[in-house]
Design goal:
Helix content: 55-70%
Radius of gyration: 18 Å
Number of domains: 1
Largest sheet: none
Number of helices: 4
Number of strands: 0
């Protein structure tokens, strides 16, 4: 999961081949949106959503790194127990789930500005 998330963002669309999305993918999608959409107002709206997506990815990455630091400290602490580690992992899992949900909502917002045909052109398999 480091530096990646939102595995369901495109639900297997061709551009990403079903992979997880990263901030670099959000930038690539933004470039493709600018190429495919002809209306600058729709491009601006789509890019606003993609910027939010990039921020969501960055925010989750910070949570992931912080949890890794916490887990490392727990592993190194002889006195720590498995319950402490499990709580840390459960908190990370809950945050991952919440972040995924935010990503799916962003995907739905993006679809408001892009037709099915345009979507297929943006996320075409190369």
């Amino acid at each position: 999961m480091p530096t990646t998330m939102l595995s369901v963002f495109l639900l297997g669309a061709g551009l990403l081949g079903g992979y997880l999305i990263t901030p670099n993918h959000a930038d690539l999608i933004s470039e493709r949106v600018a190429q495919v959409l002809e209306d600058s107002a729709r491009v601006a709206k789509a890019n606003q959503v993609l910027d939010e997506l990039g921020s969501e990815v960055d925010d989750f990455n910070e949570v992931f790194i912080d949890s890794g630091d916490s887990l490392r400290d727990l592993y190194l602490d002889h006195a720590s127990g498995s319950q402490q580690m499990q709580r840390t992992l459960e908190a990370l899992n809950l945050e991952w789930y919440a972040s995924q949900n935010r990503g799916v909502k962003l995907r739905d917002r993006l679809k408001e500005f892009i037709s099915a045909e345009e979507w297929a052109s943006i996320f075409v398999v190369e």
